[in-house]
Specification:
Elements (H helix, E strand, L loop, with lengths): L6 H5 L7 E5 L3 H7 L5 E4 L3 H4 L11 H12 L6 E5 L9 H15 L3 E5 L5 H8 L5 E6 L5 H4 L11 H13 L4 E5 L3 H10 L4 E4 L7 E4 L1 H4 L17 H17 L21
Helix pairs in contact: 2-4, 4-5, 5-6, 8-9
This protein binds 3-methyl-2-oxobutanoic acid and sodium ion.
Keywords: Cytoplasm, Magnesium, Metal-binding, Pantothenate biosynthesis, Transferase
Protein name: 3-methyl-2-oxobutanoate hydroxymethyltransferase
Catalytic activity: (6R)-5,10-methylene-5,6,7,8-tetrahydrofolate + 3-methyl-2-oxobutanoate + H2O = 2-dehydropantoate + (6S)-5,6,7,8-tetrahydrofolate
């Protein structure tokens, strides 16, 4: 089994074979993707995907740590990156360091990811200078949904310069890679061309240095909504529905459990001589 890459290995993949990544929140899903992924993200999307929250704002450090520990048990060859949840880093570099260090120490993650560009550059520099590799996340940043006003494409037309400035700021601050979420393809390609660090696209461009998707989205498990950028590679939600419907029918007509699912017993011996 190959040794899991670290943040510097990921950085060195700039311009090479595209980096493959998915989110994971549990041990079995991490085990399934581990042989196929370069890195796995314990995303704060866990709040919406597994906990039924309507945004990522309610995700806590405790949730991230619990899911991070579960994912770590399922990984062998892929690197683990973990999201810093809303309100765990925005106050400033000291708060960010304290919580990033805790996430890494308690889960074994090799890096943290945080949302923000120019406004987070100082924090990214503080963390990276003190031993914490940071993956940045710019473009659509779901933790800022209340100020962005919706999950819309970021960096169109006059907004492009702001996203480009964010990319340069996080790269200059020492981020080892940057997620570009929901930005126009031409802008993603320009950022990828200008940056010395790998760009990881989600709703961005096939020209990015890597791609990431939310695993429950691409497997068809999370169906509350489907962003345009999601490709469904499977329809596991529909398969689960029909499996459970069949189980319900068989319980009701007593065809489950069948003979092979129950335990035979020896008939108690009668009148021992
Ligand atoms: O939380 C998440 O799943 C993410 C990815 C979509 C990049 O941040
Ligand atoms: Na996230």
């Amino acid at each position: 089994r190959k040794k899991a890459p670290n943040a510097e290995d990921i950085r060195a993949r700039k311009g090479g074979q595209p980096l493959v990544s998915l989110t994971a929140y549990t041990t079995p899903m991490a085990q399934v993707m581990d042989p196929h992924c370069d890195f796995v993200l314990v995303g704060d999307s866990v709040g919406m995907v597994l906990h039924g929250l309507t945004s990522t704002l309610g995700v806590t450090m405790e949730m991230m740590i619990l899911h991070g520990q579960a994912v770590a048990r399922g990984l062998n060859g892929a690197m683990m990156v973990i999201d810093m949840p809303f309100a765990s880093y925005e106050e400033g570099p000291a708060q960010a360091f304290r919580n990033a260090a805790r996430l890494m120490a308690e889960t074994g993650a090799g890096a943290v990811k945080l949302e923000g560009g120019v406004e987070m550059a100082e924090t990214i520099r503080f963390l990276t200078k003190r031993g914490i590799p940071v993956m940045a996340h710019i473009g659509l940043t779901p933790q800022s949904i209340n100020t962005l006003g919706g999950y819309k494409v970021q960096g169109r037309d006059a907004q492009a310069d702001a996203v480009l400035a964010d990319a340069h700021a996080v790269s200059d601050a020492g981020a080892f890679s940057v997620v570009l979420e929901k930005v126009p393809q031409v802008l993603a390609d320009q950022i990828t061309a200008e940056m010395a660090i790998p760009t990881i696209g989600i709703g961005a461009s096939a020209g990015c240095d890597g791609q990431i998707l939310v695993v429950d989205d691409m497997l068809g498990f999370f169906t509350a909504f489907k962003p345009k950028f999601v490709k469904r590679y499977a329809d596991l939600g529909a398969q689960a529905d029909s499996a459970i419907a069949q189980y319900a029918a068989e319980v009701r007509d007593r065809s489950f459990p069948a003979a092979k699912h129950v335990f035979a017993d020896t008939v108690p011996a009668k009148g021992n001589t």
